[in-house]
Amino acid sequence: MSKTNSNKPVLWTVLSLALAATILMLGLQPRTSLAEDLVVYKSPTCGCCKKWVKHMRDNGFNVVVHEQYNVTPKKDEYGVPRRLRSCHTAKIGGYVVEGHVPADVVKQLLEEKPAIAGLAVPGMPMGSPGMEGFRKDPYDVISFTSTGKTGIHASR
How far is 111 from 98, CA to CA, in rounded Å? Predict the structure, then answer.
């Protein structure tokens, strides 16, 4: 008669729970299912940029932040039209994301892959992600191409 080890399922359960507890204690989150990192360039002193980064992380993006006081060189490098600029600039999946673009719109961009250079929410409209407050103003998410052509991609 062969002996079976009836403690194996219990051991695996205990190890799984210990691993889960360790992950929670360290504050680690499982890597998002999104294929690429959202790379953000922002000022270290900008609170609304910090809130937008949190919004993106809360919505499943793995965000890599580069703190720099002058983000204009990145905006120039990525071809963000001057009239569409905001406080922070990001890049993911070959697209530029300028300003307070909502996470669901960025996810849609990555799924649909339109022939554009990126999306922008010009300025810092109240009520956009990272700019939550006492009021919510309507705003547009603007698409732009590398040749400077723009259009309304979404309205909020």
Answer: 18
